[in-house]
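Could you help me review a protein record that somebody else here produced? Here is the record exactly as it was handed to me:
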Amino acid sequence: MVRAGARWLLGARAGLRWVHLVLGGALLMPYLLLTQVGVGVAAGGSNALNSFPLTLIAYAAALPLAAVTGLVGLVRPLSVAAVRAMCAVPGELLADGPARSWAARWRASAWWTLHLGVGAVISGMSLAGPPLAVVLLAVPFSETLRRSPFGQGWFAAQPTAYAAPLLGLALLAGIALCSAGAGALLARLAPVLLGPTAADRLAAAEERATDLAVRNRLARELHDAVGHALSAVTLQAGAARRVLDSDPEFVREALAAIEDTTRRTVGELDAVLGLLRDGDPARADAAPAPTLAADLDGLLARTRAGGTTVTAHQDPGPAADWAQLPAIASREAYRIVQEGLSNALRHGAGPITLRIRVHAPGGQRELEITMTNPPARTGSAHEGGRPRTTGGRGLRGAAERAALLGGRVDAGPHEGRWRLCAVLPLGTAADGAGR
């Protein structure tokens, strides 16, 4: 108990808090000097430094000035940095960044005024108290001090002179107690006055949501690009191995498809990783994102190179007509088709039927993507006798892509086959005609 009390009064934490209070007293000095001049002039030219009552009036007048300057937005981050470094307050209880709302500014101003006001009192005690305590400790051993006006008034007699050291020690203990108590009080009030406001919590939540959205976007890009490539390359390599001796021409086509797939995937992977490199935003443009208009034919050709039959029905007409789609819809549609093919290659069996069309039910143009394939039989050669181990992240990613455009994705068994159906809104029919 005694050791804990001594640590509370004289420990390292108490020392840092005392330094924090002295810093507050030093910060109040410019305000105090200014008000001392004003109080001296108001008192008929008197020097406020030579009058304790005038000094108290100047001190009281300095606090409102400190409160006004405490409304500056940068006061809060400066105060928070000092509290974190010297008051032993957990950082998560304090707000980050400048005060933006008036509620946060007023709370920071209250803290600033309290810190400077209490710090000035503790600084004054720390400056005046120890020298007086030293004098009191030396009174019994100094005839000069006992004969001085100071000693004649209090400690002229020998018995009372020996009580002076006790008063000196009590004075030092009182200064330490006041300093430790004031430091503990400020540490208790710091989370209340410097903690995050509702606006700060909302801003932090929005920042976390933005960061999460970026992470999800990167995860979708990596999953769709790399996952599809690995699935296609695996099937192409397996098909080539099975006909290695009987159909060399097919093997050459499969190897060429593997080479093309890996080359394109490396470019896409480099573009996605460019988004993660600080200060290197240009790397994200190194490889343009694939679109339905420019890259659908290549995607279907690489899928067929693995020996899977893909029947594509496109309306309107050739793939070149897809250039009329909005760029973002074309990009997201390509990724959805890519994920559907990957899912069919990994977990399906037999031919794949793909239908892409633009129609306008009720005057609202929509891009509809429908993909069907027979589901794999449990333990079939297509699955290698192993159960499905993926977590469905690709389908969730496709649903998120559609939701970003206000569309939807449905996937599941349908009439004995597996079906993926995505609908992306494109605007009104008049918008399409104008475009």
Remarks:
- Confidence is low (pLDDT under 50) at residues 279-287, 379-391.
- The CA atoms of residues 114 and 186 lie 8 Å apart.
